[in-house]
Every structure is written in C-alpha cells, then in structure tokens.
Amino acid sequence: MVVKAPTVKLSSGYEMPIVGLGTYARKAEPGQVRQAVEWAIEAGYRHIDTATIYRNEGEVGEAIANKIKQGLITREELFITTKLWNDKHAEADVLPTLQESLSKLKLSYIDLYLIHWPVSINEKGEDAEIDYIETWRGMENIVKLGLARSIGVSNFNKEQLTRILSVAQIKPAVHQFEINPTLTQHDLVNYVNQYSIVSVAYTPLGLLSNARPEFAGKDVIKTDPKLGELAQRYGKTRAQIALRYLIQRGITVIPKSFTKSRIEDNLNLFDFELSQEDMDVVDSYNLNFRCVPSLPMAKLKNYPF
Ligand SMILES: NC(=O)c1ccc[n+]([C@@H]2O[C@H](COP(=O)([O-])OP(=O)(O)OC[C@H]3O[C@@H](n4cnc5c(N)ncnc54)[C@H](OP(=O)(O)O)[C@@H]3O)[C@@H](O)[C@H]2O)c1
C-alpha cells in the first residue's frame, strides 16, 4: 500500500510533506541507508531528512537517483533536507558546504537547508564563537542564489530564535528540534507558531524507540497499559499513536527506521484520528526528558539547553 502524506505550506511558499524519513544512525552498514530510502520512496515517502554530519548524503543521493531513473518519482515531487555542521558557520563557508552536499546528493537544489546547531567549532573542535547571525546571512545568500528553496534552524532556544527573527531578511521557514510524548515542548511549539515557522519533531518516538537501552527505567511509556489499551482501540502501535499525536498538534515528524515494516508503519497515520481525551493521555507522559542533550557541546558558548 502506498500512502501519501499531506503537506504543510512553508513561509517560503513551498509545500513540505508532514511525514519524512529520518536517516541518522550511530552506526549503519554500507548500503543500509540507501536501502531504507528506497523502501521509503516505494512506500510513499516524499520527504527525506539527512545532514552532512550523518555522512550518508551519498547513499541518500544514490537512492533518489535510482528511484528517479526507475520512473517512480520526479525530483520535483521530493522534499530533501540537509544541515550545515557546526564547523562551517563562517558566512563564506555556507555556500561551498552546501555545494558539496548537493554534489553528494546528486541534486541541483535543496528543498530545506538548516543550521544544525547554534554552536560553532573550529577544525580542532574548539569553540569558534561565530555568531549564528553571521551564519544566517550565508543561509540567506544560498536562497538568493537558488540553491535552497527554504532555510531554517535546528536546536535553537527561544532567545536564539528571537535574535535571528530580529535581523532576518528571509525568516526561518522551519525549526527542527526534539519533540515527543516525553518532551512535549508546548512552550517552544507555541512560540514558533506565532512566527509562522513550522515545527519539525526529531526523535519523534523518543523513549518509545527501540534504540535507547540506556534509558531503561524511564520506559513507562513502553509499558503503561493505558497507552497499550489506546493503541489496541485504534488498531495501531504505540509508535503510531505517538506520531499521530504530533501531527495532530501541527508538527511535522521525521521518524527514522531502517526496517521495511516500520518504515511503512510510520507513514500509515492517516486513517485514524485521536480524540481530545486520548491526545491528553499521550500529553500526560511528558517528563521534560531530553533524549538528545548533546552534552559534549555543553561547554560551547551558544549551547542552547
Ligand atoms: N536536528 C538534529 O539535531 C537531530 C537530532 C536527532 C535526530 N535528527 C533527525 O531526526 C530523525 C529521527 O530521530 P531519531 O533517529 O533520533 O529517533 P526516532 O526516529 O524517534 O527513533 C528511531 C529509532 O526507533 C526505531 N523505530 C522506528 N520506527 C519504530 C516503530 N514503528 N516502532 C518501534 N521502534 C521504531 C528505529 O529502529 P529501526 O531502524 O531498527 O527500525 C530507531 O532505532 C533522525 O534520524 C535524524 O534524521 C535530527
């Protein structure tokens, strides 16, 4: 079954599908990302999330090229996101870094380019203390050059976002940050909405994901019978309930899976609707617990959390 996700209109005027495939893995076997992206496109995904630091833009590009060659999709139907890493925050670095990504992705433009984090580092990994306002000017330049259709940020806090908004000629179209049932982020989502910025939830499965054994003891959401009962009533999995909860809040989701059946499940969210009462049940699991604190960055000047 091929599922088509609805789209949301960004402030840039372009449409973004509200479900995308996440592609980050601490460790991936060669070919695994290519295979996952191909399965995803076959299942109906048209939105793929990658980043320079994931070191998989080449495989994402191969998968896209294969599917275009097979005639399954056209470039225009796809929405591809990649992200600028922290060591390329100098204004002059933004353009050549994106060009390198485009070359790996075998694309002539990117749909969405994000500043991955507000922090910056030099080649030794030390704090480069580059103001992300400078980086944003580089981001605006690539839109003017026609190399990115939309630009945005990721992992910015409210104050950092406010600074960008106060100087931006082109406003961020998207803010990508961690949102899931145990980190509900109502405050930041409401703030972002005020400026017509679309929230994209990374790690949308949070503690429901099967990848995080280190969070043992915090797994009430995996075992709580109330959520189990709810999943059973809708004929869906706990993970699908979590993703549906996010999209009903107007949030775009980018769940990662390299497993064919789960890639399909994570897009199969459009044949049911959670009642307000059930939305409140999912919301009640909030622990303000961050799966991705990126603590090694905590010593850097613009660490956001
Ligand atoms: N901007 C940023 O700083 C940032 C940070 C983190 C992530 N991201 C992006 O967001 C994407 C998603 O976040 P994430 O990868 O951290 O976490 P996630 O998507 O919430 O969870 C991924 C994990 O959940 C498992 N999983 C997937 N579908 C499942 C299902 N239906 N039921 C049970 N388990 C399931 C996957 O395993 P299998 O692969 O084995 O199926 C994988 O181990 C990333 O891949 C990346 O593209 C961005």
UniProtKB/TrEMBL annotation:
It comes from the Eukaryota. Residues 22-285 form the NADP-dependent oxidoreductase domain. GO terms for molecular function: oxidoreductase activity. The record marks K83 as: Lowers pKa of active site Tyr. InterPro entries: AKR, Aldo/ket_reductase_CS, NAD(P)_OxRdtase_dom_sf, NADP_OxRdtase_dom. The active site is at Y54 (proton donor). Substrate binds at H116. Pfam families: Aldo_ket_red. This is Aldo-keto reductase AKR2E4-like.
